[in-house]
Amino acid sequence: MHNSKQNLRIQYTLTGLTIIVFALKVATFFITHSLSVLSDTLESVVNIIATLVGSYSLYIAAKPKDKDHPYGHGKAEFISSAFQGTLIIVVGCLIIYESIDSFIHPGTLHNLGNGFWLLILIALINIGTALFVMRMGKKNNSMALVTSGKLFLIDFFTTISVAIGLLILMVTNIQKVDSIIAVLLGAWVVYDGYKILRASLAGIMDEADMALLENVIAEINEHRNDSWIDLHNLRVIKYGPLLHIDCHLTLPWYLNVHEAHLVMDQFTDMIKSKFGDSVEFFIHIDGCMPFSCAICNLANCEKRQHSFKQKLDWNMENVLSNNKHQL
User: How far apart are CA 256 and CA 19, in angstroms?
Assistant: First the structure.
C-alpha cells in the first residue's frame, strides 16, 4: 500500500512536469516555426493525456481488494499503458503525415539558435525525469510508472533529435532536413508506441513474464531447503504492483499440518525477502511419494524407502509442468 501511494505521488508530479515541458515546446515552435518542433510538441500533448490517464490508473490500482476484485485492481495499470501506447502510435502516424506534406511544401524557419538551446533544456528535463521514474517503477513493480518513464525517455530522444536537426539546418541551410528528421521521429514514435502496447496487452492476457519466472526460480534454487522435495506447476502473474505466485510444493508426507505450514512459511518468506511484501501466494502442498526418494536430499529421513540418487535442479522446463518429478 505504501508503494501504491508513492507511485501515485510520483505520477501527479509527472503530470505537472509534462505540462511544463509542453509549454516550453510551444514556445520553441513559435520561435522557430519548425515542423519537427511541432511534431515534438504534438507528442507532448499525448504525454499530458497519458500521464493523466496514468494517474487515474494508479489511483484505481491503489484500491484494496474487494469482493468484486479478489486479486485487487492492479490490472488498471495495464489498461492505462495500452491506452498510452495507442495514443503514441496515432501521434507517430500524424507526425509522419505532416512531415511528408512539409517536405513537398516547405515553410520558412527562423530563430533556430534560440530554439536549439530551448530544446537542449527540455531534453535535460526529460532524461533526468525518465531515469528516476523508470527506476522507481521497477523498484515498486509499477508498469504505469515504467511506461510514464518510457514516455519521458522517448521524449528525450525525439527532442534531442529535433535539436540535432536544427543544428544541421543552421550549418547547411537545407530546410528539407527538418522534414526528414520529423519523418524519422514519427517512425521512432510509432515503434515505441507498439512496444508499450504489446507489453500492456501481454499483462492483460496474463502472458508469462519469462525474465520474472527465471528470477523467481533462481532465488528458490539459491535458498533451497532440503524439506522442499519437489516443485512443479509454478505460475507467476503480475497485477500491477502485486505478484501472485501459484505452485505445488512437495514436502515429506509424514509432517503434520502445523509442521508443513512452518516449512511453507520458510518458502514464502524467502521469496518475499527478494521481491518485497507485495507478493500473494497460493501454494498446494503435496506429500512425497515412494518415487520421490530418488530426488529427495533430506538427511536422516526415517521414512525413506529408496536411496537418494541425484538432486534435481529446478528450471524453466521442469517447474512449469503440472507433473511431479521422478527419475
Answer: 61
DSSP SS3 for 100:
helix
What is the per-residue pLDDT for 72? 63
Output the nine-digit C-alpha cell for 322. Answer: 503440472
Q: Please tell me the distance from the alpha carbon of residue 236 to that of residue 227, in angstroms, as a whole number.
A: 22
Superfamily of domain 2-204: Cation efflux protein transmembrane domain (1.20.1510.10)
Query: Where in the sequence of the chain do the CATH 3.30.70.1350 domains occur?
Result: 210-319
- Outline which parts of the chain fall under CATH 1.20.1510.10: 2-204
Q: For residue 204, what pLDDT is reported?
A: 66
State the cell numbers at 60. Answer: 484505481
CATH code given to domain 210-319: 3.30.70.1350
Predicted TM-score (pTM) of this structure? 0.54
Residue 239 pLDDT > 70, yes or no?
A: no
Phi first, then psi: give them for residue 281, nearest 5 degrees: -120, 145
Identify the pLDDT of residue 193: 83
Cα 106 to chain center, whole Å?
Answer: 40
In the structure grid, which three cell numbers stand for residue 30, read together? 513559435
pLDDT digits (tens, 9 = 90+) for 41-71: 877 777 777 767 767 766 776 676 677 666 6
